[in-house]
Structures are given as structure tokens and as C-alpha cells.
Write a structure and sequence with these properties.
Layout (H helix, E strand, L loop, with lengths): L1 H8 L7 E7 L21 E7 L2 H11 L11 H11 L4 E9 L4 E9 H10 L5 H4 L5 E2 L7 H21 L3 E3 H10 L16 H6 L3 H14 L4 E8 L6 E7 L3 H10 L2 H10 L6 H8 L5 H28 L1 H17 L1
Parallel strand pairs: 2-4
Antiparallel strand pairs: 1-2, 1-5, 3-4, 6-8, 7-8
Helix pairs in contact: 2-3, 4-6, 6-9, 6-10, 11-13, 13-14
Length: 337
């Protein structure tokens, strides 16, 4: 499949692209879906282009592929670049783009490197940062881009730390990665309708080894707080499982709370039943039994806002007809699973 992705992206203006990745059910196996790469699967391949120059990318891409764009193309590349960067989660999406020479249909998003790094480190939108909590297929090695690689790594550590705050002292690998994957879904308004309610399970279950590989460096970084306890079984199942045990002391909890992304700190400070600056909130919540509930609500606040604004934004960038067709296909997959 990697060859298919590379053939798909070579038609785009890659001069200003600093990173590319593919994700979604057409790229990573999900439970209940046909095997990835099956010609009859009908899955859309989701791509993201991280660019240094949004205006330059859209100017050249409009020249090469005007049919990819909705009526917004008539307003020119400058408007499209501004529309991308000033609204929603900072992503411009072109939806249901057929590539007959490759035999696939793609949906692709464009984001500036500056805004992607901000989302990864600060969780301003928890939009692409949330996508990148889960395994993806990199089409450019992020190690060649040190600032972006550092932000990608920080995003994974943040996801692990927030999940540790939500989990009990002992938990399985499946419970850990389900909690991580759910961070960017629980507050998403699309989970109310249009998305399979088992979406998170369908992602995690067949990709458990990929999750372990992705989070191994982050687990190593936090090894003083969490460790593999023993091998056992998933609750209510005979399947083998890796069991984890974490430090749930006030000291460990306060450490994680101090390290979480800035936007989440702001939301947590607003939602906590505590007056004062953030250090006071940490002192209060590090011993409060309601911490998981307040923390989850704070994560949901970020996701809800970005999911609504980006979805509204996508209607104009995709066009009304394509938006309706895309939503219909999503609903078909939901009810077919």
C-alpha cells in the first residue's frame, strides 16, 4: 500500500510540504471493515499535508488540480490560505477526490507546520493532535524535521499522561490505548450521529501491537510512574494481556497535571471547583476524587469546539454535494459494521 500512497501524492506540489501522513480505515485496519488494501473495500484514503507555505501550496495546487476544490477556488489561493489558517482547527480539506490512475479515492487536509506544532504541543484544537494519538502511516520521515519530531513526541507523552490521570492504579494495555484513542472522540459531536459508537474499540483492537510500538518511547520516558506489572488476561476474556501498574500518589498526580498541554490547563482551571491560579488547581485536584471526571470534561470541551467549527468549515471547502455524499458514506459504514 505504501507504493499506492506515494503514487497518489506525487501529483501534488511537494516543494513546501514538510510532512505527510495517511490515516483512517482505508489505511489502518479497523475491526469490522474489509482488509486494508482490498480493491473492493471502497474506503477513502485520508491524507494530511503539513506545509511551510500554505499560500504557495494552494496557488500551485489550484493551478494543477482546480477540480479538487469547491466554489471557493474562485476566490483565489490567498482566500483559501486564510480560510485554512483562520477558521476551525486550521485545516483545509478537499473531500472525495478520485484518482483513477491509482484506483483510489482520497480526502486530503492541508495544515501549516506552525499550526500543527501548536496543536501537538498545546492541544489548542486537539484535532490533528488527536489523529496523531493513534498509529498513522508516515510518508515523510519526521526525524528529518527536528521541531516537528519534538512536537509529535510531546503529543504522545501528553496523551499518555492525561490517560494515566483517567485510569486506575492497575489496567491492561487495551484499556490504556482505548483511553488514549478515546481522548479525541468522546467530545466529538459527530459521535452523537454519523459515527459508529464502537469506533474506538474498532481502532484499538486490531492495532494493539502498533499502539505498543508507537507509545514505547513515551512509556520509557514515564517509567518512573508506570511499569509493566505482569502478563494476564483481559477482563472477561481468555485473551492474553499486558497489565500495567502506575503510581497514583499525590506527587505523581501533581507531576502529570503540571505537564499537561496549555489549552487543557486553561480548561481544567475553568472547570475545577477551585479558585486561584493553576498551581492552586493542581494542589486541589491532585487529591480530589472527582479529578478524572473534571479532566475528561475539560478534554471534551476542546474536542467539541474544534469538531463543530471544523465540520462547518468543511462544508464550504468540500462543497455541499460532496459533503452530503461523504456524510452518507460515513453513515453507510456505521450501520454496516
Amino acid at each position: 500500500m505504501l507504493d499506492v500512497y506515494r503514487r497518489a501524492v506525487k501529483r501534488f506540489p511537494l516543494g513546501s510540504v514538510s510532512h505527510m501522513f495517511a490515516y483512517g480505515s482505508g489505511v489502518k485496519q479497523q475491526e469490522g471493515y474489509q482488509k486494508v488494501g482490498t480493491p473492493s473495500s471502497g474506503s477513502v484514503i485520508d491524507l494530511v499535508f503539513c506545509v511551510r507555505d500554505a499560500l504557495g501550496f494552494h496557488a500551485e495546487n489550484l493551478h494543477r488540480h482546480p477540480g479538487h476544490y469547491s466554489a471557493l477556488k474562485h476566490l483565489g489561493p490567498k482566500f483559501i490560505a486564510q480560510y485554512q489558517e483562520r477558521l476551525g482547527a486550521g485545516v483545509y480539506c478537499n473531500t472525495l477526490v478520485p484518482l483513477p490512475d491509482v484506483g483510489v479515492t482520497i480526502k486530503y487536509g492541508v495544515v501549516s507546520q506552525e499550526q500543527l506544532i501548536e496543536d501537538l504541543t498545546d492541544w489548542r484544537h486537539l484535532y490533528l493532535a488527536g489523529r496523531l494519538h493513534k498509529p498513522v502511516t508516515d510518508l515523510v520521515n519526521p526525524s528529518d524535521n527536528p521541531p516537528l519530531k519534538a512536537a509529535l513526541d510531546r503529543n504522545l507523552v501528553s496523551a499518555l499522561e492525561v490517560s494515566l490521570l483517567l485510569l486506575p492504579e492497575k489496567f491492561t494495555g487495551y484499556e490504556l490505548f482505548h483511553t488514549i484513542a478515546a481522548l479525541s472522540y468522546k467530545g466529538d459531536f459527530r459521535m452523537i450521529f454519523g459515527e459508529n459508537k464502537q469506533k474506538v474499540h474498532n481502532i484499538v483492537s486490531p492495532q494493539i501491537n502498533d499502539f505498543f510500538a508507537l507509545y514505547q518511547p513515551a512509556l520509557g520516558e514515564l517509567s518512573q510512574f508506570v511499569a509493566v506489572n505482569m502478563k494476564g488476561q483481559e477482563p472477561g476474556s481468555r485473551k492474553p494481556a499486558i497489565l500495567f501498574e502506575q503510581d497514583k500518589s499525590q506527587t505523581a498526580t501533581a507531576y502529570h497535571l503540571r505537564k499537561i498541554p496549555g489549552q487543557l490547563k486553561s480548561r481544567l482551571q475553568k472547570n475545577a471547583a477551585c479558585r486561584g491560579d493553576y498551581p492552586a488547581v493542581v494542589d486541589h485536584l491532585s487529591v480530589a476524587p472527582q479529578l478524572p471526571k473534571v479532566l475528561q470534561a475539560s478534554v471534551n470541551d476542546i474536542v467539541w469546539r474544534s469538531s463543530v467549527t471544523q465540520s462547518i468549515k468543511n462544508i464550504a471547502s468540500a462543497g455541499v454535494i460532496k459533503s452530503l455524499v461523504y456524510s452518507y458514506r460515513k453513515a453507510q459504514k456505521t450501520f454496516a459494521v
